[in-house]
Design brief:
Elements: E1 10-11, E2 16-19, E3 21-23, E4 30-36, E5 40-46, E6 52-58, E7 62-69, H1 84-99, E8 102-111, H2 123-128, E9 140-148, E10 152-160, E11 178-182, E12 189-193, E13 203-208, E14 231-238, E15 245-248, E16 255-258, E17 270-273, E18 276-278, E19 285-287
Parallel strand pairs: 4-8, 13-15
Antiparallel strand pairs: 1-7, 2-6, 3-4, 5-6, 7-8, 9-10, 9-14, 10-13, 11-12, 14-15, 14-16, 17-18, 18-19
InterPro entries: Csl4, CSL4_N, EXOSC1_C, NA-bd_OB-fold
Pfam families: CSL4_N, EXOSC1
GO cellular component, one term: nucleolus
Length: about 290
């Protein structure tokens, strides 16, 4: 059994994790081969004596995790009887293989939580996973509209779908509390990170007018599609210009999922069709680019 105690622990980007090959201290016939996984890369280390070694180096902050790769089973012809001579030859080759050194392969990953702790996901673990859960291209995200102009809508990314919250904790509480938001396009519930007014930065994003819908892009009126405070389900189009992510809602399942009425004293709006939302009590109708219920 592979003893990971000499390699486990917390690492920072650039820290050495382990060599690519290592012998078992108890059985020298067993050779361990380590392959780079999530958060680790293959690099060359030069020892003080001038000799170079292939090693794995951490590329993320976190804890080291080893996963054994199981060897594929021997080829078998189901439903057919094997030739006795061929079978004997395979048995001879297998015994010869067993007499040689045994190679066991492990994938080395860097994760945000200590693998030795078998506890449930906690808020601390979510915050430690922050660096591994940045929004990427084609990710589905929830964002909050902050500003509207004729050409674009400025937003703040609150969460990436099916991942821990992404709001930077900073010096405040952003990302440390999860809340449930329901409404918008119907009976849809999302868990998003709390956006508080204290110190703490979020990811800035932009929805350009040509990325609001797939048809009639030139006739889009931004004020008819979004309003400040709306929660919008978007797809990350690109990493943008270094300041803002570029988002798009040019799909049926993308658009406003949560909104409050501007003319109805902040009453919650519900979707009627793909471009209309209504406040049930006051009956006020407002236009939005609504996400299709799923």
């Amino acid at each position: 059994m592979f003893d990971t105690s000499k390699y486990t622990g917390k690492v920072l980007p650039g820290d050495l994790i382990c060599p690519v090959f290592d012998l078992d201290t108890e059985d020298t016939k067993v050779l361990y081969e380590f392959l780079s996984g999530h958060g680790s890369i293959l690099d060359t280390y030069t020892a003080p004596n001038g000799q170079s070694y292939n090693v794995l180096v951490a590329s993320l902050k976190g804890f080291i995790e080893f996963k054994e790769l199981l060897a594929p089973e021997e080829d078998m012809e189901d439903g057919f009887e094997q030739d006795p001579e061929n079978k004997n030859e395979k048995t001879h080759n297998a015994s010869k293989k067993n007499s040689d050194r045994i190679v066991k392969k492990y994938t080395v990953n860097v994760v945000g939580h200590d693998p030795s702790l078998q506890s449930c996901v906690s808020t601390e673990q979510v915050n430690n996973d922050f660096s591994n859960n940045l929004p990427k291209e084609n990710d589905i995200v929830l964002c909050k509209i902050t500003k509207i102009t004729q050409q674009r809508a400025n937003a703040e990314i609150l969460a990436v779908e099916n991942r821990p919250c992404v709001a930077d904790s900073g010096l405040g509480t952003n990302g440390s509390v999860l809340s449930s938001v329901t409404g918008g396009s119907g009976a849809v519930t999302f868990s998003i990170s709390q956006v508080s007014s204290d110190v703490g930065e979020t990811f800035k994003a932009v929805i350009r007018s040509q990325d609001v819908r797939a048809t009639d892009r030139d006739s889009v009126v931004m004020t008819d599609c979004f309003c400040p405070g709306d929660i919008v389900r978007c797809k990350v189009l690109s990493l943008g210009d270094g300041t803002n992510y570029y988002l798009t809602t040019a799909q049926n399942d993308l658009g406003v999922v949560f909104a409050k009425s501007l003319g109805g004293a902040g009453e919650l709006l519900y979707a009627v069709d793909w471009k209309t939302m209504v406040a049930p009590t006051s009956g006020v109708e407002e236009t939005r680019k609504v996400a299709k219920p799923f």
